[in-house]
Amino acid sequence: MTAALSIAGVRKSYGRLDALRGIDLSVAAGEFFGLLGPNGAGKSTLINIIAGLVRMNAGQIAVMGHDIVRDFRAARRSLGVVPQELVFDPFFNVRDMLRIQAGYYGCGRESWPWIDEMLERLDLADKAGTSMRALSGGMKRRVLIAQALVHRPPVVILDEPTAGVDVELRRTLWRFMTDLHRNGTTVVLTTHYLEEAQELCGRIAILDHGALQVVETTRELLARHPFRFLRLKLADGAQLPEALQPLIAGEVNGVVELKLETARHPIGSVFTALRDAGVAIEDVQTREPDLEDIFIDLTGERAEARP
Amino acid sequence: MSPDRIAFVTLLKKEIKRFWSVLGQTVTAPVITAMLYLLVFAQALKDRASAYEGISYTEFLLPGLVMMTVIQNAFANTSSSLTQSKVMGNLVFLQMAPIGPLEWFGAYVLAALVRVCLVAVAMLAVTTLFVPLPVEAPLALLAVFLLSGAGLAAVGMIAGIVAEKFDHIAAFTNFFIMPLSFLSGVFYSVHALPPLWYHASHFNPFFYMIDGFRYGFFGHADVPIWQSLAWCGGFFVVASAVCLWMLVTGYKIKR
C-alpha cells in the first residue's frame, strides 16, 4: 500500500545550523500521526519542505507516492497544509478566499457545495461574506483550516492548529479533525499540547535537534518507560526518609512527587520505608506517566503549555 | 477545463479582482494624474513648435503620457501584489498550490496588462474630444503596447520577488522607473536634446516604448519602428527570462 507520506534521508541546513539531520519517516494512509518536538526541533522546517516552501539539501519526499519535486502538481493536490502563522489575503471575503483556493487546486464550481458545508461545520457560515481582515484570530484560524481542506486532500498537515485558540474552538477543531480522520483522511498534527497528541494520535514521532528521537504508537510510547508517580503529602514537619530522597521528581505546595520504576520500586516498598522511619502521611495520590513525561525524558525539555 | 487551466484562470481572476477592488487607486488615480500632466504641460507649452509637422504639441504629448502611465502601472501592479503577499505572508497559499512558474508568471503579467489596458483606454477616451489622435499603424501600436506592458509587469515581478518590504519597491520606483520614464522623450523629442543626452537616450528602453507607441498613432517617430519593436521585444524577453529563472529556482521566495 502506498504510504501517505514517505520521507527519506531529508537534510536541511541554514548556514552552519543543521535544521534536519537526515529524517526517515513513513506515515501510512489513514493514520492520525503526531509530530512533536520542542521549539527549534525542526518540525516546521520539515513541514515547510513537504509543503514546497523550503528547499531540502538532500533526500526525497513523496505524498501519496508523488515526489514533491518531480511530480509536484500531483503531490500538492494530495496535500493540504494548515500553516502555523495566521496569514490571510486582505482583499477578499471568506467565501471568495475559499473559492480562489479551490481554483488553485483545479477545483471549479463543483467544489462550492463542499465549501458551504465546511463553512457550516467550522461555524463560519455567518462570516462567509466578511472581509478576511475583519475576522478575529480564531476565525482566521478556522478559515486556514477550511483552505487546507478545500480540495479534499487525502493527506492533511496541521502545524499547531490549536496554538493560542480558546477552549471552545479547540474542541471544535478536535471534533473536526477526528471526523476527517474517521472519513479516511491521513492527518499529521504538530502541537505543543501533549494531551492533544495523546488523545488524538495513533502514532507519534518526537523530533529534537533536527533528528528523530522516536517513532512509535502512542500506546507503545506511553508503555516505553515503566514508571509511575506517587504524590505524598506528609504530616506537618515530617521529612522524607533519606532512602527515598533520590526518587523525588518534584515538589509543589508541600506535596512531594516520587518517580517510581515499576520493577525496582513497588509502591509497597515506599510505604514500608515511610512506616519504618515513622513518617506520617496526610494524603496519597498515584499518577500514570503521560506523554509530557516521556517528552521530557527524550528531549530534556518541557512542552510550552498545557491547554 | 483541465485542473492546470482552472488554476491559471483562478490566479488571473484573483489578480484582476485584487486591483479591481481598489479601482480608485489602481485605475482612476493614474488617469487623473496623467490628465493633470496633460493639462499643465499642454497649457504651458502649447505655443512650442511640435516635433512633427502637422501635429500639435498636445497631440505629440498624449501618446507619451499614455505609455508612461502604462509603464508605471504595469510595474506597480505586479510589484505591489507580490510585495504585499510577501509582507502579509499570504504568498504561501500560492507557493503551496500546484501552480507552475509559467502559469504564475502568465497570470500576473496578464492581469497587469488588463489593468494598463483599462488605464490607457480610459485616458484616450477622456481626451478623445479635445485631443483626437489618428491611428496610423494599429498593429505596431498594439505590439509596442503589449510588449512594453508585459516587460514592465515582468520587471515588477522581479522587484516584488527581490523586495522584502515596501521601501524596497519605493526605491525601485523612485530610482529606476521614474527617472527612466521621465527621461524617455515623453515631453520632448530626443532630437531636441544636446548630443550627449541624445545618445544616452538611445540606451533607455523606455524611450523605444514611447517612441514606438507614438509611431502607432502618427506613422512616424524619432527612430524606425523595427528598432523600437526590437528593443521592446528584447526587454520583454530578458525581463521574462530573469523572472522565470527566479520563480523556477525559488530565488528569495523559497528558503
UniProtKB/TrEMBL annotation, chain A:
PROSITE patterns noted in UniProt: ABC_TRANSPORTER_1, ABC_TRANSPORTER_2
SMART domains: AAA (SM00382)
Segments forming a coiled coil: none
Keywords: ATP-binding, Nucleotide-binding, Transport
Domain of life: Bacteria
Domain ABC transporter: start-end pairs: 5-234
One Gene Ontology molecular-function label: ATP hydrolysis activity
Keyword Transcription annotated: no
Record-linked SUPFAM superfamilies: P-loop containing nucleoside triphosphate hydrolases (SSF52540)
Record has Nucleotide-binding as a keyword: yes
Protein name: ABC-2 type transport system ATP-binding protein
Organism: Sinimarinibacterium flocculans
UniProtKB/TrEMBL annotation, chain B:
Domain ABC transmembrane type-2: 21-250
UniProt key word Transcription regulation: no
Membrane-traversing stretches: 20-42, 54-75, 112-133, 139-162, 169-190, 225-248
UniProt GO molecular function: ABC-type transporter activity
Annotated compartments: Cell inner membrane; Membrane
Keywords from the UniProt entry: Cell membrane, Membrane, Transmembrane, Transmembrane helix, Transport
Membrane topology: Multi-pass membrane protein
PANTHER family: INNER MEMBRANE TRANSPORT PERMEASE YADH, INNER MEMBRANE TRANSPORT PERMEASE YADH-RELATED
Pfam families for the chain: ABC2_membrane (PF01061)
Domain of life the protein comes from: Bacteria
Entry protein name: Transport permease protein
Primary localization class, coarse: membrane
Gene Ontology CC terms: ATP-binding cassette (ABC) transporter complex
Annotated family: Belongs to the ABC-2 integral membrane protein family.
Organism annotation: Sinimarinibacterium flocculans
Alphabetized InterPro entries for the sequence: ABC-2_transport_permease, ABC2_TM, ABC2_TM_bact-type, ABC_2_transport
